[in-house]
Amino acid sequence: MSLDACFKDWIIDLVEQFLNRPCSPSPFLIWCDPKREWLELLRIAASSGGFELWADPSEHELVLRDRFYSAERAPRVIWLPRGRDEITWFKVFELEAEAVWEKSLLEALREYGVRIPREFEHDLVSLLPAHAREWFEEPPSTWKELTPASAKGALVDDHRMLEALAGEKGEFEQLQREERFGVFARRAVEDFGLPDPTGMAEESWRVAATARLLATEAAHCCPQNPPREGESIIPRGLPRENGLRLLKLWQSHIRFIPSFESLVQEADKTLGLPYWARNLDFPPRSKSSRAVEEILFTQMADRFDRIEEIDLLARELEQHIQDFQERSAGFWGQVATHRIGWRYLKQLAEAASLLVENAGIEKSFKTAKDAVTWYSYSGWMLDQAGELLFLESPDLPKQLHRVRARLRRGYLRRVDQVGRTFSELLIKGEEDVFSLPSAGEVVMGELEHGKTPTALVFLDACSLQFGHRLAEIINEGEPAERATIRTAIAPIPSITALGMAFALPLERKQLDVAFSEEEGDFQVTAKGFSGNLRLAKERRKWLSARFDVKDFLTIADVLDSEKLRPAGKARRLIVIEGDDLDKEGHEGQLELTGADDHLERYGQAFRKLKAAGYNRIIVVTDHGSFHWQPDADEVEDAKPDGEVLWSSRRAIIGRNLRHLSAIHLPVPCSDLEAMIPRSINVFRTYGGLGYFHGGATLQELIIPVLLVHWPAKASKIHVVLKPVGHITSEMPRIQVEAGAPGQLTLYPDSTKLARRVAVKVREPSSGKLVFRHSDAIIVEPAGKAATIQLQLVEPRPNLSYGTQLVVEVLDADDEELLAREEVILKVDIDEW
Question: Starting from the edge strand earliest in sequence, which strands make up the sheet with 573-578, in order?
């Protein structure tokens, strides 16, 4: 017998030593098993070893004797559920047996070579049958030294403990069938400090165990002032460590998230944690109890709601930003189906932090160029915070509406203070600002480097903060930086009629700006081209003549695969135009929905361009913009005097203009003059709009040029679907990750591109959609698995328990099927 033989083979070899002896009649072996610890092992061994086994626990010994007497003699094992001295009716054949086995499982294992310390015998006896079945086919090296701790862990490991706590109904019955319930009960009490499940209903034990874990976490995270929950708190030591580890694993395990959400809320009802949390001086670091999180959030929101003074409110919010970030990243702030509003407090605190950080920043500006440097480097972040403050959020908790309104006023005041200082400095030294390159000059320099296929994208009103947000979208999940931002200067007035001409790839000194009184609008011409570049069709003609551009597309065209043709020798440069930001800004839509949907759409279009072979993308814009809600005293009543040729809310254009307070600036490349109201003021307003441009603020004049470079031989990563098996809730979670197992490396491959992924669940027979999610998920090269929460489609389908479904993982950009798995629905779904 090999020294590496498993316990099963050892048993088979032992039996065969008796049954293979040549004798007449054929030999048989009586196997006495008074504790019934050998029965399942013998059945497995007989099936594998091919020997005959008679083992029927329900068969009376007299019936067994008669059956044996009548049967033809053959080598076999006769199992008896009693000791040798307890044999009665079958005693007559005992003396004929080749041997009578009387050794216990403990004795056999020692003989097999397993080290079982004498001091652990008593604790191990009840564990050995199940443990032996678990490791029956494992080699001796697996067994090593057998102790109660190692035995319990092997039979009911931590994952099985989590199954018992958080799995489907019927786990207790399953443990009973597997004869592991006793081991599970001992582990629950001894290793995890949980209630003894013996004699308890499964659901009742789960609620009680969850309550003990919640109370223990609260006590562990607040040792100076623990909750008064008595026996519900697991004492310090290994059981507490195991319990808290189990609690953490539960919240992150995709299969058990629904049960965590439901059981915690039931367990909260049995505890006094809300009262405890309400009377703490500082928020505890525990985050698992929903009741505690709701109490803490309400207290925080009410506290800030009572602070009327804006600067004090901003400072108070900033001081708690780290706590809000941590709690918004917790289960109830980020993972739960119905999340607590920590993310809104986090957003408000981040906006407040920028207000505090930039308080009085304008006092550090010595020149207009200083202001431009600040805005280009970090000042745009203040505008990003402003976008969030002005964005309407239907589910914003009611306590935070007044907090947000005060921060809005604080943002507007801060922007105005910076704007007033910039206005003063601009009067003294506009050459510092207007010496910056135009967008077209930046593009011209970029096009001179290399002949790689390029897409030149013109986006109307893409402010600097939108440019940075778009760069983030492109770079998200990538192993190397793909998108960078350079800043340029927009012309005065900052309007599309001039700005788009200045964004064409040529030196601005080649442009000439005039005003046609006959047409009542600007006329922009370039050397060697007579068309009016104020008009989009003339700009297209110029690009065709200068760069041999043949394809002029919209963003919608790019997203339509049939209209986007691949790059080639005859198609080195294409032009794309998009005006969503400008149009919806004027219509007020951006204040309701924000710009993220448009920016995500642009990002998708850029990935389409990359797939078509355009490895370089250059994004330019005509002007920036800002949100503003002017009060009556912030509107200039008096209009400039002089020869007024053109007027808007933010600029008056003409000759010999005069005004007591407006800024006097030259219109570039012309003999025209501009009068611009200082800071963010306007000459007139209408319609309650909060979207302004045309003047001379940092937000309008300092614009982005987005440069995107993709590797020529780049390819998207592979995406795999982690096993699902079955769907047990109406809001299931699915996990996807990069690459197939074994493909991930320590160092990311810069030629691999991240992939935007969508997951859909369908009924295979009809193809009807059952589950989906709203936003695509970025899967990163060599990144962590991404979790996607799905939702039922509307109208709700009618599906019964046991319905077969198919999970599909798709590329969100082109609907390419990346992975699929057939699953079983384990919940009834109806239209109600």
Answer: 483-489, 702-709, 616-621, 454-459, 573-578, 552-554
Interaxial angle between packed helices 401-428 and 310-319, expressed in degrees from 0 to 180 and rounded to the nearest 10: 110
* pLDDT score of 690: 61
> Over the stretch 321-360, which tens digit does the pLDDT of each residue have?
999 999 999 999 998 988 999 999 999 999 999 999 999 9
Is residue 502 within 8 A of residue 438, CB to CB? The reply is yes
Structure tokens at 821: 């798995």
Confidence of residue 773 (pLDDT cuts 50, 70, 90): confident
Task: Please report, in angstroms and rounded to a whole number, the separation of the first and last CA atoms in the chain.
Answer: 65
Q: Which residues contact 329 (CB under 8 A, 6 or more apart)?
A: none
> Using 50, 70 and 90 to split pLDDT, how confident is the model at 571?
confident
Sign of CA dihedral 386, 392, 394, 397: positive
Q: Quote the tokens at residue 761.
A: 């669940």
pTM recorded for the entire structure:
0.77
735 — phi, psi (to 5°)? -120, 135
CB neighbours of 672 closer than 8 A, spacing ≥ 6?
Answer: 513, 514, 515, 645, 653, 654, 655, 666
Compute the distance between CA of residue 690 and CA of residue 364 in angstroms, rounded to an integer: 28
In 3D, which of 685, 825, 709, 827 has the Cα closest to residue 763? 825
Give 522's pLDDT tier (boundaries 50, 70, 90): very high
Question: Alpha-carbon distance 678 to 421, whole Å?
Answer: 9
Query: Rounded distance, CA 594 to CA 591, Å?
Result: 6
- Residue of 748, 740, 702, 729 whose CA lies nearest to 789: 729
d(CA 504, CA 373): 24
